[in-house]
Design goal:
Layout lengths: L1 H41 L8 E5 L5 E2 L2 E2 L2 H10 L8 E3 L10 E5 L4 E7 L8 H5 L7 E8 L2 H6 L1 H9 L7 H12 L4 H10 L4 H16 L8 E7 L5 H9 L8 E3 L4 H11 L2 E10 L4 E9 L1 H7 L12 H8 L11 E10 H8 L5 H4 L4
Parallel strand pairs: 1-4, 8-9
Antiparallel strand pairs: 1-5, 2-3, 5-6, 6-7, 8-10, 10-11, 11-12
Helix pairs in contact: 1-2, 7-9, 8-9
Length: 364
């Protein structure tokens, strides 16, 4: 009797991980199938360096379960890896549906997939009998190359207006094209965290480069950057991803700047105010800060976007690509409006809700 009980307990312990693994395999299977379909449509071999994969797997929750195993299936089949700068998780709310996307930078073609809801309820045997592409309720295969879409605006209008990429058109076309243009890993990570690329994220990345050159961290154990995000825009997400400056760590304080105050600062300094960055030494309880300006008007003029007459979906994407050369020369559009020293008392004033930091600094 005792041996029988021990045997049953051992059998039960074996059964638990097997069952869990079977459930996990559904997502692994789905990611692998997405890779198979992408490889077939875009004609690439595992690990091809001209292919980018994007997905919200790992963020999406499906039937109460996380979806990170889809990443393993995708990687094992396609050979595409985050560490090789050709696979990124695009941030999305966990209630958004799961999707997969592949882009060939040589042909400009893209494949987008959304799973069929019925796949989630299939048994392992039913899945095994199903062709790879039948796991998806939507499969889109078309161009995502910005130049080609601009040259054929009807195709671009169809892509965007008909939501051929499931409503993710702006995000996926932007990320694809800057990646193809040579965007670095940290830049792509910041854009994926923001869930899309836009001129605001690029401006944040440029501010990072400007600050790290002009106000570098000199004591890694004691210093950090504090962002007084006033006015705030998409740049703040780049700071969070690259500097780890977050509200939860008391290194980011986001405030609205009134249109009148923004206009007054622009009139006084000749450029749009772009927030305040402080290099803070927590051991010494003091730091140095700069109020910055960012000249978006200059960029728009130089890229020919002031009186845009092209498709309505295109100007920000054109600006995304057009801003890439500015990354290596941030001083061309970023200026320091004011430098200042800061102690704990003044830091508290700058970051406290209800205070206008520009008035605290005597700039207004």
């Amino acid at each position: 009797m005792k041996r029988t009980i021990i045997f049953l307990i051992a059998l039960y312990c074996l059964f638990i991980p097997i069952s869990a693994a079977a459930e996990d395999d559904l997502m692994y299977d789905l990611g692998s199938r997405a890779a198979e379909v992408g490889m077939d449509l875009l004609k690439f071999e595992p690990g091809a360096d001209n292919i980018l994969a994007l997905t919200n797997a790992g963020h999406a929750i499906v039937k109460g379960k996380t979806t990170e195993r889809a990443l393993s299936g995708l990687t094992d089949t396609s050979g595409l890896r985050n560490g090789d700068n050709n696979l990124y998780q695009v941030n999305r709310p966990d209630w958004k549906g799961l999707w997969f996307y592949f882009y060939n930078k040589d042909s400009g073609l893209a494949a987008y997939m959304e799973p069929d809801a019925a796949f989630y309820t299939m048994s392992a045997e039913e899945r095994a009998a199903l062709p790879a592409d039948k796991a998806f309720g939507q499969v889109t295969f078309m161009s995502a190359n910005l130049d080609k879409l601009l040259a054929n605006p009807d195709e671009g209008n169809t892509t965007f207006n008909k939501k051929k990429f499931g409503g993710n058109e702006f995000s996926l076309v932007g990320l694809s094209n800057v990646w193809a243009a040579g965007a670095t890993y940290d830049f792509m990570n910041a854009a994926a965290f923001h869930d899309h690329l836009c001129p605001g994220v690029t401006s944040g990345y440029m501010i990072i480069k400007y600050i790290q050159k002009n106000l570098p961290i000199t004591n890694q154990s004691a210093e950090t950057y504090i962002d007084i995000g006033c006015p705030n825009w998409c740049k703040e997400d780049a700071f969070q991803m690259i500097w780890d400056s977050t509200p939860g760590k008391n290194s980011m304080f986001v405030m609205t700047l009134s249109p009148d105050d923004e206009a007054a600062l622009k009139a006084k300094y000749g450029t749009r105010p772009a927030g305040i960055i402080i290099r803070w030494n927590d051991a010494a309880k003091k730091g140095k800060g700069v109020a910055l300006g960012f000249n978006f008007d200059q960029i728009s003029e130089e890229l020919g976007l002031v009186n845009w007459t092209g498709p309505t979906w295109a100007p920000k994407l054109v600006q995304d690509i057009g801003m890439m050369p500015y990354i290596d020369n941030p001083e061309s559009v970023i200026t320091t409006l004011k430098e200042f020293d800061v102690d704990e008392v003044n830091l508290t004033k700058l970051k406290t809700a209800g205070n206008n930091p520009y008035k605290v600094l005597g700039m207004l």
